[in-house]
């Protein structure tokens, strides 16, 4: 007995296929940043002085340090202040400039002060924290004058490459006036201006 071959389905007519949605025009760096958010999950785009910077996903040690620091700052997550991870800060250095600190201490009503693209007025930020990874130069060299110009009172850097924690305070137009460096095994006291005078272990921000 001969088995008849299966007939191939009739080709779908072009006119029966739904048309793809029109591509959204990319008109600026903000649009490119949105493409990165959508197409590269886990990556964090920022625009610094008119340049689009794409930060890779953090590693596990980075995440552990950030969690430990959040717990150490728990008393600030009530009353007049909140502790938040990964919220945008709109920078005054360019039309589309913004940055996303690893962690921030902000005024309790910060969510009422969106400037654009879910980024917030820098005046509601009391402290920003960056823990370095592949973006070492951005966190230690590029961002300090930008945060200072935005008027962020306290910038705390966990510099994992150099195994040190840097505390920057007293912002001016050209940078922070006060800089203190702390080594593993030491403790440091954060300024009371962030909401409370809190002492933290340097090791909290460094890999173990």
Automatic annotation (TrEMBL):
Record keywords, A-Z: Endonuclease, Hydrolase, Nuclease
Statement: the UniProt record of this protein carries the keyword Hydrolase: yes
Coiled-coil ranges (or none): none
Pfam families associated with the record: Uma2 (PF05685)
GO molecular function, one term: endonuclease activity
Domain of life: Bacteria
Name of this protein: Uma2 family endonuclease
Species for this entry: Streptomyces alkaliphilus
Residue numbers spanned by region Disordered: 1-23
Domain Putative restriction endonuclease: 39-202
